[in-house]
Amino acid sequence: MTKIDVYCKNCNSAKTVKAGKNQLKSNSVGVQRYRCQICGKYFQMTYKAIGRLPEMKEKIVDMCSNGSGIRDTARVLKVSTKTVINTIKKACKLLKWAD
């Protein structure tokens, strides 16, 4: 069995550990999750839904902060409006803009 080096997508550290699996409706096996021991972030090697990609979340926040509306952002990035709304809410909580 070969060992695959897994690097954190946030800080590029090689200090990662397995952290369970995400069960998918279409795949009974699940997708392996990892946790970085340096920054504490959880990630997967592959994502099925494009709305879950960290890069997509950054694009959503960038577009909304530059004046794009929710429906416009969803249409351009080909994600649902619910994904855009949830991502903005989480970003606001992180930035302490929300009450």
TrEMBL record:
Designated name of the protein: Insertion element iso-IS1N protein InsA
Biological processes per GO annotation: DNA transposition
Taxonomy of the source species: Bacteria, Pseudomonadati, Pseudomonadota, Gammaproteobacteria, Thiotrichales
Domain Insertion element IS1 protein InsA helix-turn-helix: 46-90
InterPro entries: InsA_HTH_dom (IPR024431), IS1_transposase_InsA (IPR051252), WH-like_DNA-bd_sf (IPR036388)
Gene3D superfamilies for this protein: Winged helix-like DNA-binding domain superfamily/Winged helix DNA-binding domain
